[in-house]
Amino acid sequence: MQQLLREAVARAANEIGAGVTPEEVSLETPPREEFGDLSSPLCLTLARVLRRPPLEIARQVVERLEQVISRGELPWVGEATAAAPGYVNFRFDMGKVAGDLLAEVAERGEEYGRRRPGSGPKVVIEHTNINPNKAAHIGHLRNACLGDTLARLYRARGYRVEVQNYIDDTGVQVADIVVGLERLGRRPRPGEPFDYFCWDLYTEVQELYERDPEAREGRRRVLSLIEEGDNEVARTAREVAEAIVREHLHTMWPLGIYYDLLTWESDILRAGFFRHAFEKLREQGTLVKEETGPNAGCWVVKLSDLPEFADLENPDKVLVRSDGTATYTAKDIAYQLWKFGLLGRDFRYRPYTRQPDGSTLWTSTTRDGQEGDFGRAWRVINVIDVRQKYLQDVLRYSLRRLGYEEAARNSIHFAYEVVALSARAARELGLEVGDDAGAVAMSGRKGVGVKAKDLLAAAQRLALREVEARHADLEAHRREEIARAIACGAVRYYMVRFHPNTLVAFDFDEALSMQGNSGPYLQYAHARACSILARARERGLLAEPPAGRSPAASGAASGTPGAVAGPASGAPGAVAGPARALVLKMIEMPLVLDKACELNLPSLFADYVYGLAQAFTNFYETTPVLAAEPGERDFRLALVDAFRRVMAGALDVLGIPAPEVM
RNA sequence: GCGCCUGUAGCUCAGUGGAUGAGAGCGUCUGCCUUCUAAGCAGAGGGCCGCAGGUUCGAAUCCUGCCAGGCGCGCCA
Fold first, then answer.
1. Residues 483-522 of A with CB under 7 A from strand B
2. All domains in chain A, ordered by first residue
């Protein structure tokens, strides 16, 4: 509908010589109700191009729009007016808008605002990628939450999405754990989770290296044995990695984060991905062997001729060391080529495990598996923190040099700032922090950080306390289920609500907050709507929902028939005040979904959902539903039910469960 | 040194393509539960939007310079 409006405005503007496309017509919600229901500042920007006062342009555009409106071609629009300093403001026929909205929500249910699934091209999203040598901390959690929300955004927009989790099982970090097991002779205490055990062990190994440099040689030996494969050390390393990966999966699953494929670095090595990529790069001339200079004996990508790299101290990137081994970046280039289906090689695959949502998680293998339809993406999004920007630039540049211009354009580094500890949080962990200190960086080596599982557990404890205070009547397992949902909402929302460029100074109180701008606030709005509807059903004002339908916890239920009225039950009175604001907020959702996906900006959508919750809460506080006059009551019930569904769908995009009671 | 990011209320942050209120949450203060869940709502207080220039009818937003902070610039991953 907004698209119709854009087209009409563009046409009108073009008739007076503007030359704009409908997409260039920006639409916004006016700050005050007097200004109308929707507004376009287009004529303000046109003023410069047309060299005429904006208000005059706006008047002419409005003149033309009035004809379109009188022909009934813009069904929502009651009138268009020009306003100083040059806005075109639209006043809607809110009864019509509300009626259309209710009809659409009745049809699409929680899918409102989404495109039909699986209709678009394929997007590969790589996220989580935690070194398999210790417990996940809250920095990893930000990565996973951002990545998973991006995946959900893209799915909502109709793309086919494949989520990959890359496991670096052959790197130094795993080797350090093997060294620790060998030299320090530690074993997990009874009941101690293996990832927690390794968290401490990893730190101890770093301390060992400090006091005993000879121990470092042990690492070198372990690394080469891992690379060789087929020996006891390599098997131990793999066991460590597997055990940690299991823990990481069990960390993420309660948050509704699932994967399609695990890709193991050892498989990338064994499948000869880099050897293959190496030939391509060499033939193409991207890769050069240096005979002199600091990189003598290495194969490098020359970057010094590029403006964005030229000023670096040493701009060329080594891919093959003088001892003939490949660097991390080299493997990454091969992996990236594979993701686009450009490598000409493939893994084999086998099912790894079944995830709680019922989906199968697959893993790469090299020998025993079957062929699979992984990779071959149109677009690849790598969720990696900003510190790896340079490497991701090298990656993109290498694709370009290989002639894969389109793949390079669709190689997206979703760069986000890291999570650090606020001074307060650091002190709570027992660290010495000066008074003027800002945030304190987490450090795996020093064992400084907040573990992801600990955070979720703390959130669950707090939530459970609240639920018990409110719903003593509920069975214990129900209360725990609700508490888990709330904990998930609190943590996930905290992880995506900040702009990716913002360094999150982690604070326990904020992350665990269940009031104000928080996940539980969003969930609460939904629960309150459910509560009204439940009472309405008790009083026979509504049909019972179809039996056997799973609660709107997650997943998008298809449009089940319920209270949402068809177009026939349009608003009886004027849709004004909080109801109007709620309707306007709801019809905004498809636009925000588009925008957030286009800009790869989960925080934009999170912020919208907060506004949606506020709009409903405002309505709830000011507008009686069950106690209203019957005609008005039916409309309000329909509106509440529509909100309930739209909100459940919106929460689902954020991966946040929508409990009906809380 | 070079590059990227950041500087908005006491604190944590949002403000995408310039324009019609500089906003939210937390914290502080004052009110509101015999009416659909107070995890809520209403109100008060609190801001030369880092500084200085520039462009414009108009700048938190664009340009330049400066100041402050974070990160990056490995034959680590």
1. 486, 497-499, 501-505, 507, 509-510, 513-518, 520-521
2. 2-92 (3.30.1360.70), 456-653 (1.10.730.10)
